[in-house]
């Protein structure tokens, strides 16, 4: 049963207001048969992603159209200032190896380069720089170092799914070709789908995860 549009809209607005890391003063929420559309502006790219994640946590949300823009208040920030702040953010993140990630900024768009050992370190770098004011977008070009991949990596991932309460009721098929893992089937929720993808990334030797899951 679909939640009425007005109730779904209010629930999403309440969820955004509940999150202290999201400034929703310039966010407009609309709902249409389970589809949520976010429009307006927030101070940082991090808040664009965070607001979308918050919306997807609300029961009854089936689809998200996140049209939020990064809109700064006050003076413009130069590319050099963004780059310097990005380096500071990386150096202040304990998950990112010092000096492993390079930052290049052109017209507010950040390109991350370099090489790290783990996917979570690549995500941590993007997350840290995404919080910098003035960042309009991020191209995460950080590479993963080559590491051996177990021959039974698909079975290891399936076992990890079975151990996770949020995933184990989902019907997910796991396969791999070399270092690339493929996820097919159905997940019970958007949260379960993201958890499954994160779990697959944690497997040793994986350099790419192709998520083809549908949310039941």
**What structural class should be given to the helix and strand makeup?**
alpha/beta
Q: Could you name the CATH topology of the largest domain?
A: Histidine-containing Protein, Chain: A
The overall pLDDT, averaged over residues, is: 91
**How much helicity do the residues have?**
25-40%
Distance between the termini: 14 Å
- Tally of DSSP helical segments: 6
Topology as H/E string? HEEHEEHEEHEEHEEHE
Number of strands: 11
Q: Could you describe the 3D structure shown?
A:
The chain is of the alpha/beta class and 216 residues long. The protein has helices spanning 5-18, 45-56, 79-91, 119-130, 153-163, 190-201; strands at residues 27-32, 35-42, 63-66, 69-70, 101-106, 109-116, 137-140, 143-144, 171-177, 180-187, 208-215. It has three domains: 5-70, Histidine-containing Protein, Chain: A; 79-144, Histidine-containing Protein, Chain: A, CATH 3.30.1340; 153-215, 2-Layer Sandwich (Histidine-containing Protein, Chain: A). It contains six helices and eleven strands.
List descriptors:
Histidine-containing Protein, Chain: A, 6 helices, 34% helix, four-stranded mixed sheet, alpha/beta, 216 residues
């Amino acid at each position: 049963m679909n939640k009425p549009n007005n109730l779904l809209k209010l629930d999403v607005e309440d969820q955004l207001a509940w999150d202290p890391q999201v400034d929703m003063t310039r966010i407009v929420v609309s709902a249409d048969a389970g589809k949520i559309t976010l429009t307006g502006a927030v101070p940082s790219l991090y808040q664009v992603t965070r607001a979308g994640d918050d919306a997807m946590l609300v029961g009854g949300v089936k689809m998200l159209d996140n049209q939020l823009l990064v809109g700064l208040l006050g003076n413009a920030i130069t590319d050099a200032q963004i780059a310097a702040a990005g380096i500071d953010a990386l150096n202040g993140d304990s998950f990112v190896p010092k000096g492993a990630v390079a930052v290049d900024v052109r017209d507010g768009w950040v390109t991350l380069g370099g090489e790290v050992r783990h996917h979570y370190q690549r995500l941590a770098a993007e997350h840290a720089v995404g919080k910098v004011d003035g960042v309009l977008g991020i191209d995460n070009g950080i590479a993963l170092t080559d590491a051996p991949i177990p021959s039974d990596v698909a079975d290891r991932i399936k076992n990890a799914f079975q151990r996770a309460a949020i995933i184990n009721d989902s019907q997910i098929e796991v396969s791999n070709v070399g270092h690339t893992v493929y996820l097919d089937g159905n997940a019970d929720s958007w949260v379960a789908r993201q958890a499954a993808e994160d779990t697959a990334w944690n497997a040793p030797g994986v350099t790419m995860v192709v998520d083809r899951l549908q949310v039941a």
